[in-house]
Amino acid sequence: MNAEIIAVGSELLLGQITNTNAQFLSHHLAEIGINVYYHTVVGDNHKRLIEVVKEAEKRADLLIFTGGLGPTKDDLTKEAIAEHIGNELEYNEVALKSIEAYFAKVNRTMTENNKKQALVMSGSKVLPNDHGMAPGMLLKANNKQYMLLPGPPKEMQPMFLTYGKNELIQLLEKVERIESRVLRFFGIGESALEVEVEDLLLNQQNPTIAPLAGDGEVTLRITAKHESEEVALQMIQEVEDEILRRVGQYFYGYDQTTIAEELAELLKERNLSIAVAESLTGGLFQSELTAVKGVSAIFKGGIVCYSNDAKKQLVKVKKETIDTYGAVSEQCALELAENTRAIFDSDFSLSFTGVAGPDEMDGQAPGTVWIGLAERFQKTKAYKLNLVGSRAGVRKRSVKYGCHYLLHALNQNE
Amino acid sequence: MNAEIIAVGSELLLGQITNTNAQFLSHHLAEIGINVYYHTVVGDNHKRLIEVVKEAEKRADLLIFTGGLGPTKDDLTKEAIAEHIGNELEYNEVALKSIEAYFAKVNRTMTENNKKQALVMSGSKVLPNDHGMAPGMLLKANNKQYMLLPGPPKEMQPMFLTYGKNELIQLLEKVERIESRVLRFFGIGESALEVEVEDLLLNQQNPTIAPLAGDGEVTLRITAKHESEEVALQMIQEVEDEILRRVGQYFYGYDQTTIAEELAELLKERNLSIAVAESLTGGLFQSELTAVKGVSAIFKGGIVCYSNDAKKQLVKVKKETIDTYGAVSEQCALELAENTRAIFDSDFSLSFTGVAGPDEMDGQAPGTVWIGLAERFQKTKAYKLNLVGSRAGVRKRSVKYGCHYLLHALNQNE
């Protein structure tokens, strides 16, 4: 079964809101094996809506509409579709009662235009709206399925999950499960990663493998279709094993995780403590680490030594070091890391010093970054980066590199 | 001129990402008076993309594409369109050099597939990519305009604002200017603010006033239409003056600014220095402050005293204070702020201590937060918050309240 998702609303075309409904529905349709080949957005305009519907009927079996079910004159989705397929609108008693109850509850007088929301297409299966007034509906006509859902995500999402999705599952002859898993990589570019797995990408069918890059990371989404969930997961596992055999050293986690979260979890698991000195990143590493619940068990604290005075006074970096090599130097990164570890008596420490940009500093280009890594029983190391991008991008990627180096050290110590 | 925005990418149809590009472009096209009647999303599929293009050519003068300009085999937008309109792809020397320079700078080997990104449609105006590798392009063919932009918003947005938008303005005969300005408020709820400006909201036509709430803030967007930019701006100014006369004490800035940025700019302007001690916010305040360029002039540094040991050892909070009152207390917030100001010898300091959640701490509910504010010549103050929401929300709003209190103190000292 192929679906097209059609959002109706001029506010989308004016750029006032984002069409998050299309993402939500696509994700859940993929899960039950319904292919989505198109999203369309059209305004609150009768003629243009009908043209879009006609086009969609040529290329999809299931048309899912969001928006245009409300009380105002702008809201015309069900009116237009009913006219197009030659259907009548009729009042739904349950919906009418629930709209009246709603107004009683909020102690407001129900204006007449609100009754319009209780009109549904004759013969349709009504989808109750537990978080608003306008009900949804599902109707079969001309060998197509038409599902109408309200526009506000707060109403649409629970309606689809509670009622709509099950209705669709019942329409499917056989439910083909679509399982997917995202592998996240850091420290390798998109094209370099692709070269490593090129044969897999070329021969993919089921599972499919889709690369995506952003914010200095690359992800590979592996998606498998099968009637049996177990078999689908096994198919994914085999592809994952092969990918990790090749580029496993850059892999850090699955799905929606972040590299800072993986680091925090590993430190918690091994009960190893960390302290941090941040200059160019200005607290960003620590704020990402402390976004993870329960991190107080392993995070001893840190110093944001943005000024050279703070580096000297609080982190005891030698004046000669800064005078001779500058604050953005291997020597400074090493001292920052080593002294921070000693001050907090932690198992590990990281230090970040560099030029976030947009301007040069001490003759060094924006994106020049040194990261120090101290361990209790090891020689302190420092890594140099030459990053490209905005101030925010340089700071974000510096934080990720810090996580990457420490994760690497932890995995070597295993 | 009518436009259709076509996003190309299977990741959109699988629901992995939201099509924020369509919103961004729609908003900016509306500003220059270009009507957008449709958004379309199609996958990385040559045949279906061409069908979408043919359909769009029937109903729009300008086709704007996002996505599919990257180095991988999935990326087929320009190849498909060039074939469709009978155009040739050719290497763009500037783009090729900039891709080579990028790889040289990040010290990575350029794989052959990256060269593909420098291919542009013959005769097109090239739009440089200042934040990535694949250039955009604008081409006139068959009496239609085709604009191709990269998919990642970080690349697409600056490319459109810096180059694409101006190219479009030059194509327009008469521009009806749509100007808009966002006023940002903190410390007042959406409905409370709405009550204050209710009559303005009810009578709005041109300019329009649109309230929006989120992340503990409220914004009012004022939008005016007029052929003359000057008149449109004057119309906005009059509405703004009236709004600020009523709720000016909660106003902190315009458009895309943040309250942390406004604070940083004011401190820079007055040359007043700040230092920070963060417990529950874990570096978030400092990372937002240091996101602002040039903040090193006034930010002396800070301590992330996540553990009680760090509060005692590094910020010299008395053991008795923590034993008697706990770390989440007025007394602890006051000592943290006062000692931090003294350690860094700054004009101001802020301290944050509280329970980010999701669990209770020391018998205190999640969302219980104390913020200390020390000034060089004033008595140190502390403010208590009882925030509701997720761990991330509590941390974010704590940071905003810290900015709010200090901005307020600065404005009183004026």
Automatic annotation (TrEMBL), chains A, B:
<dbReference type="Pfam" id="PF02464">
    <property type="entry name" value="CinA"/>
</dbReference>
<comment type="similarity">
    <text>Belongs to the CinA family.</text>
</comment>
<dbReference type="InterPro" id="IPR041424">
    <property type="entry name" value="CinA_KH"/>
</dbReference>
<dbReference type="Pfam" id="PF18146">
    <property type="entry name" value="CinA_KH"/>
</dbReference>
<dbReference type="InterPro" id="IPR008135">
    <property type="entry name" value="Competence-induced_CinA"/>
</dbReference>
<dbReference type="InterPro" id="IPR036653">
    <property type="entry name" value="CinA-like_C"/>
</dbReference>
<dbReference type="InterPro" id="IPR008136">
    <property type="entry name" value="CinA_C"/>
</dbReference>
<dbReference type="InterPro" id="IPR036425">
    <property type="entry name" value="MoaB/Mog-like_dom_sf"/>
</dbReference>
<dbReference type="Pfam" id="PF00994">
    <property type="entry name" value="MoCF_biosynth"/>
</dbReference>
<protein>
    <recommendedName>
        <fullName>Putative competence-damage inducible protein</fullName>
    </recommendedName>
</protein>
<feature type="domain" description="MoaB/Mog">
    <location>
        <begin position="4"/>
        <end position="170"/>
    </location>
</feature>
<dbReference type="InterPro" id="IPR001453">
    <property type="entry name" value="MoaB/Mog_dom"/>
</dbReference>
<dbReference type="InterPro" id="IPR050101">
    <property type="entry name" value="CinA"/>
</dbReference>
